[in-house]
Amino acid sequence: xxxxxxxxxxxxxxxxxxxxxxxxxxxxxxxxxxxxxxxxxxxxxxxxxxxxxxxxxxxxxxxxxxxxxxxxxxxxxxxxxxxxxxxxxxxxxxxxxxxxxxxxxxxxxxxxxxxxxxxxxxxxxxxxxxxxxxxxxxxxxxxxxxxxxxxxxxxxxxxxxxxxxxxxxxxxxxxxxxxxxxxxxxxxxxxxxxxxxxxxxxxxxxxxxxxxxxxxxxxxxxxxxxxxxxxxxxxxxxxxxxxxxxxxxxxxxxxxxxxxxxxxxxxxxxxxxxxxxxxxxxxxxxxxxxxxxxxxxxxxxxxxxxxxxxxxxxxxxxxxxxxxxxxxxxxxxxxxxxxxxxxxxxxxxxxxxxxxxxxxxxxxxxxxxxxxxxxxxxxxxxxxxxxxxxxxxxxxxxxxxxxxxxxxxxxxxxxxxxxxxxxxxxxxxxxxxxxxxxxxxxxxxx
Amino acid sequence: xxxxxxxxxxxxxxxxxxxxxxxxxxxxxxxxxxxxxxxxxxxxxxxxxxxxxxxxxxxxxxxxxxxxxxxxxxxxxxxxxxxxxxxxxxxxxxxxxxxxxxxxxxxxxxxxxxxxxxxxxxxxxxxxxxxxxxxxxxxxxxxxxxxxxxxxxxxxxxxxxxxxxxxxxxxxxxxxxxxxxxxxxxxxxxxxxxxxxxxxxxxxxxxxxxxxxxxxxxxxxxxxxxxxxxxxxxxxxxxxxxxxxxxxxxxxxxxxxxxxxxxxxxxxxxxxxxxxxxxxxxxxxxxxxxxxxxxxxxxxxxxxxxxxxxxxxxxxxxxxxxxxxxxxxxxxxxxxxxxxxxxxxxxxxxxxxxxxxxxxxxxxxxxxxxxxxxxxxxxxxxxxxxxxxxxxxxxxxxxxxxxxxxxxxxxxxxxxxxxxxxxxxxxxxxxxxxxxxxxxxxxxxx
Amino acid sequence: xxxxxxxxxxxxxxxxxxxxxxxxxxxxxxxxxxxxxxxxxxxxxxxxxxxxxxxxxxxxxxxxxxxxxxxxxxxxxxxxxxxxxxxxxxxxxxxxxxxxxxxxxxxxxxxxxxxxxxxxxxxxxxxxxxxxxxxxxxxxxxxxxxxxxxxxxxxxxxxxxxxxxxxxxxxxxxxxxxxxxxxxxxxxxxxxxxxxxxxxxxxxxxxxxxxxxxxxxxxxxxxxxxxxxxxxxxxxxxxxxxxxxxxxxxxxxxxxxxxxxxxxxxxxxxxxxxxxxxxxxxxxxxxxxxxxxxxxxxxxxxxxxxxxxxxxxxxxxxxxxxxxxxxxxxxxxxxxxxxxxxxxxxxxxxxxxxxxxxxxxxxxxxxxxxxxxxxxxxxxxxxxxxxxxxxxxxxxxxxxxxxxxxxxxxxxxxxxxxxxxxxxxxxxxxxxxxxxxxxxxxxxxx
Lengths: 446, 446, 446
What we know:
The structure is a homotrimer.
Chain A: H1 11-14, H2 22-26, H3 29-33, E1 41-47, E2 56-61, E3 64-71, E4 74-79, E5 100-102, E6 108-111, E7 117-120, E8 139-142, E9 145-150, E10 194-203, H4 207-214, H5 227-231, E11 239-242, E12 248-251, E13 259-262, E14 269-272, E15 274-275, E16 280-281, E17 291-295, E18 299-303, E19 311-318, E20 324-333, H6 337-375, H7 378-382, H8 390-402, H9 421-428
Antiparallel strand pairs in A: 1-9, 2-3, 3-4, 5-6, 6-7, 8-9, 10-20, 11-14, 12-13, 13-17, 15-16, 17-18, 18-19, 19-20
Helix pairs in contact in A: 4-6
């Protein structure tokens, strides 16, 4: 073997040049540990219309199985794992009254309001009754969306923060702090008359690499061929670069959401119009002004997108350590039925095909393309980040400081045993792992 | 954080109220260890008609690959893993005479009767010949079913128990011990003129949770919507409760099957007709009297079901730690061809659609619904059992005391490496893991 | 328990009779460790026609992701994992000029010739530029095949051996050493005017058991029903047996390929015409004379097969520890267009259906039939080899001595995490794990 140093190499040698050097990495260790997500946070669970009166649905967030039921308009959420033999109650909903949900297998019946085991259908005097139960999850329903506070079993009711602490920064109340002369104040899902329209679907990658893609300022290349770009005759820059010592504002006010706001389209970020080496040059830049911010537990806001008076929210809700539910939501203030109809029409005809699909599909695939690199830990150690990655690095740090808990790896729940035979059978049937419980719906055909 | 104790909680706090407290659990530790089943027991392998004269089939029980061949009516069973390169001989049967089976790959030829390597097709003088071999498994064929004694490689021939030790209690010889004034004596598969009709299929869950479902007295809810219930105008109770200090008889006679007999439809169990809290009340109870018992290694008997003079047997045969072969068999004494025809007709037209499917399908899905909870061990530790669970708890204890061996986790056999590439390919082809060997049947098309 | 020794048994007792006893096994431990293949060797990557001018393809060998691009006829190969976020560049090829390949996600741009990070599309002054890069792999293109030297990241350029060191022995230069009076000298892929025609496909088993099947002299049984055998009225022996003290020549010349040559169809191997015990007797033996040899890193040569003047090469290229790319290639010297046309015609009409499929399909399935036995290590310890297995044992030893490195288990690369969610989704879509990168080809439909 010769002693000439080869020109090829990987992370070890170039650590010194990485933006995410060892010292930096140590500042976001909790984030690296959060493969199953951050617990004790508010997450979107369903669109309101997915849970009509009387309906029961089962989902999973951060490895926690959750059943939701709507009674007289109000939604209840409980741990969806019977204390008896562990089946998911949502797989075959059975409710004898408006105050309880019963397990379809042996009739264990839980109060909707406090989760206590209140009776067993055929065993009404058992000593377990009143002495056990399932965790309940606070629910908030706003603007057509159902949010659930996903918590550890022993997280106290009185410590539950308001939903607004886990939703994006609001305007105009933050307009002075984060001025945006280029567009009208973004509406909030919490505003009066706010309407949220959107879709959600399962992405087969970890929620963190999904989230980091959401506010990534350096991946414009992925979108250069999108129809919306060309239909609207945009001329995009090659990218944008931070040129200010504080291109990103970290927000960690005691009484509000924790996250970061990016000063895009200000003098803190500069569009890149040329790469001389590659012979690339952009003339007549013409694009859309927007701004992105992200708050715990992983909620993106894109202001002024895809049009004025509309804001796009995204969530990357952890299901397991390798699946997330991807939420793409447009919010607009609609004060009349006509406003609502127009928004809905435009949503169906323009936003859904060109933005939620089209544009966002590129991001969905990009996140999945990272999965193999990150899933065994390689990526978290070996990635070589650069100056533009100030965004994910800032996010990792603020998320590490302010999350309310790191979800433990799921045990005994759907998709936790990766190779379970029941999971294999579903694959053979053409069903990829997903967000919803599979209902037992044809067992009574005889 | 407040110091008020939350109302939500799981197992840890309610252990004291569980029927399966720590002391109880320690009494069935061997059962908890038996994920791959109990070895050195008799198991059903095939229906007689599945192995016609000359046929060769490969199956797997307790992680042991087994090949069966019928010659001049007699069935032989050998370990289905060539000592040379480990392929399954059953994948491409090759037999040069009536006394041997040869491996299709290199011609290693084993005696059917003692498993010895008796020659190698193209290497008839190798020193390995006569000095190695594959384990043989005793076979019994009764009433249209083929049973195999699945044993460890070093289990001696002279210690093999009779098949009857691993089959249900018989009548009338046990009628005094277990009186049943409500119905005629149940026939046994070992009786003269007994006919066994049934089906078998793969369930994607562990054999233990499958078995426990079989004699579970508390899951009537699962069956309340079944067609057979409504077609026959049955009015089921909400459930039945043990009200006697010995609701279940443990049977552990030295010379016979080991298991338990439940005193259903006696004064030891009481139907539950009302759940006041839920406003449920049953009037005019009208059902079928039956009785369930279970013996090692996991054979259920339902007497007087689905009709008089018929008995239903079920087996939950471990394939791996997360798959079992579900056997549903009806037995009746048929002394004439006409009897046999009538039984077969009723089996095809009534029992198969309404009982084996229909009714039992509900159980199959219930067992699979428990799989995720139990597969990583969570369920065995966290389940909160109640008074009606005296049945599974009794079974776990008696099975822990009397099994003849705990099967070791499969190595080097079909489905033992959960993620093997060959398994993945089968999933992509739409084939879920199953009981039978996949035959190499199209390789000679050119 | 009785103290009579059972007749059944497995490896432990028969170790003394095995050809691969403990001492023998210790001589090929490196081979047993090489589940992911031998690294720092030349492997076939693509047929030339699979990479036309301008094309980009991604593959994986020994757990190393590799992207190939052809520019002005010349082929470049680089590690196909962007240093930034680890995505495979080949999934969505993006090249701005003839000297580089850029990552489609964030525009990281690498020199084709030395792998250095030469610019970032929108970040042309980052300090990482020039200070990191991806490993490059030497490429040779001969006779219609593209070979890549798959190396560890720190393997020095100056130590790269010539391609001929990893290709079969050549003739006539070895004719004296290995005489073959029965047929004309086999052509080499390195000869002038050599044409290589063939196919490659993914086999779902480990590369070693695939390779050992290739030169296995004892598996004639597998082929006895093949159409080519019967169409040509061959009468095959039952097998062939080594009868000389050196039935195989080990080749380990300093300056050339390392491997073994089998003295088939000489007095060192004897056809077996009878197995008295099984009543098998071959009359009028009539077959094809051929000879097999194998060299590191796993390249088979079958001389004089399937016809005179043709030679068949096979490679078993490790993709992961449970997948290999199976290469079946026929080589012939074609000095004119007419020669080439005739060879191609015969290849399409005869060799492909009857040899590459047909005959070789039987081998492909045989290799997969061994996978479950070997994948968890059972086979490597428990297999009971015999005299005819002098071939694989010799190969294991020579491979253990002369390989240039044992590939480490893949991390962060395609198919390394066996249960990754993205892999599961592909299975649900009916796609088995394979050799090529799945292109992101429909994300821009909107």
